[in-house]
Design a protein that fits this description.
This protein has 445 residues and is an alpha+beta fold. It is built from 13 helices and 23 strands. Bound molecules: glycyl-adenosine-5'-phosphate.
């Protein structure tokens, strides 16, 4: 993980936030390539939810919702973790994660032991961030930053039914920021207090819930593998009864082999009719479906694939990160699926003279209209290739002396390092073709 954190900073993917003020725990800012990669992850999720099917619609709900939403959802009473305080080092730990905790004062913990701390009794700590709305701070102005995007979907169930002309089985999808005052964070962007979620609530007839739960488990596993995650690094693990969230009758997690071990990447829950019934009770609005044909009235059951954008991004980076020796030199390469790569093609003049920069710039300007491209002139060609390898650029186009003679360039493949000579004029079509092809990671399983 340390190598990945260093690479992400060195190459402008992810920076610790507020660094010039000494940093603020577990908060990160995304740099240029981080933003591009994150956008690609979100675009692929939207593509799989909206473009590749016609039974899901999108929504973008507010972060601050009516406080009753969180009473109805059960978060106010039940979204807690057991917390203990240390009287010695003043740190807080999750009572159920003590084995992984480290005392801040006495880091003398032996392997397998809890922190060497003077701990208080465990008490329940609510993970929601509280804030106040409006100019006057009083008890009536308390509100919460949403801890999940899901509730913004449930409270819009009626709006969507009315205006989107959908009927079960159908889904509502959302990507947005969520906030949790996590007690223990760490492991880079795996668990942070501010993060983005990609959630979809799929509303079905009650007797079809199990079938759709199976469907979404398969679909979501497929999404990760088609985007290049090696299947050996993924498992689907069903929750034991004592792990289930208050709303869930069955949940399976897709776990990924992160550097700290297999951990949750995405949860796929069968939420039953819990949320629609709760919001019906608390709001007084009937949230149900009336089937005009069968004259049947029912509260749909909900299947929810819930993923984290940042966590997915970490999994894609971890799975892609590779080092190898090429002709006696160490090469670091991010073997990202080309669809996820922040830059698809780099255009490089071999040297900064003999008209090569001008020709390379022309090629770049034509290419960037069709495909995310970058022009790179500074430093030796080897150094520029290494930089592009580290940010995961799948293809490099080099303009050399021969280009002026016959209009051809070399096309270098990030993974195989194969270099082929192709006419510059054919690049847009050729690269579009390559981008559309299936891709599997060349890294061993
Ligand atoms: N609506 C259901 C729900 O929120 P969850 O398992 O608590 O379920 C879903 O969250 C996903 O959101 C997780 O699988 C994870 O990918 C991401 N996630 C949750 N808490 C996170 C955190 N503190 N930091 C980063 N990602 C988080």
């Amino acid at each position: 993980m340390d190598e990945i954190v260093a690479m992400c900073k060195r190459r402008g993917f992810i920076f610790p936030s507020s660094e010039i003020y000494g940093g603020v725990g577990s908060t990160y800012d995304y740099g240029h390539y981080g933003v591009l990669l994150k956008n690609n992850v979100k675009a692929e999720w939207w593509r799989s939810m909206l473009q590749e099917r016609d039974d899901i619609v999108a929504i973008d709900s507010a972060i601050i919702q009516h406080p009753r939403v969180w009473e109805a959802s059960g978060h106010l009473a039940g979204f807690t973790d057991p917390m203990v305080d240390c009287r010695t080092c003043k740190l807080r730990f999750r009572a159920d994660h003590l084995d992984d905790a480290q005392c801040g004062r006495k880091p003398s913990k032996k392997p397998g032991e809890g922190p060497d701390c003077d701990l208080t009794e465990a008490r329940e700590f609510n993970l929601m961030f509280e804030t106040t709305v409006g100019p006057v701070k009083d008890s009536g102005s308390v509100a919460y930053l949403r801890p999940e995007t899901a509730q913004g979907i449930f409270i819009n169930f009626k709006n969507v039914l009315q205006f989107a002309r959908v009927k079960p089985p159908f889904g509502i999808a959302q990507i947005g920021k969520s906030f949790r005052n996590e007690i223990t964070t760490g492991n880079f962007i795996f668990r942070t207090r501010e993060f983005e979620q990609m959630e979809m609530e799929f509303f079905v007839a009650p007797d079809e819930a199990e079938r759709w739960h199976e469907h979404w488990m398969e679909e979501r596993m497929r999404w990760y593998t088609e985007l290049g995650i090696r299947a050996d690094n993924l498992v689907l693990r069903a929750h034991d009864a004592d792990e289930l969230s208050h709303y869930s009758s069955a949940t399976s997690d897709i776990e990924y082999r992160f550097p700290m071990g297999f951990s949750e990447l995405e949860g796929i829950a069968n939420r039953g009719d819990f949320d629609l019934r709760q919001h019906t009770e608390f709001s007084g609005e009937k949230l149900e479906y009336f089937d005009q044909q069968t004259k049947e009235r029912y509260v749909p059951h909900v299947i929810e694939p819930a993923a984290g954008v940042d966590r997915a991004m970490l999994a894609f980076i971890v799975d892609a990160y590779d080092t190898e020796e090429v002709e006696g030199r160490q090469r670091t390469v991010l073997r990202l699926h080309p669809k996820l790569a922040p830059v698809k093609v780099a255009v490089l003049p071999l040297v900064s003279r003999d008209g090569m920069p001008e020709r390379a710039r022309e090629i770049f300007e034509a290419l960037r209209l069709k495909i995310p491209s970058e022009y790179d002139e500074g430093g030796s060609i080897g150094k520029r290739y290494r930089r592009q390898d580290e940010i995961g650029t799948p293809w490099g186009v080099t303009v050399d002396g021969q280009t002026a003679e016959d209009g051809t360039v070399t096309l270098r493949d990030r993974d195989s390092l194969e270099q082929t000579r192709v006419p510059a004029a054919e690049l847009p079509e050729l690269l579009a073709e390559r981008l559309a092809q299936e891709w599997t990671s060349p890294k061993p399983g």
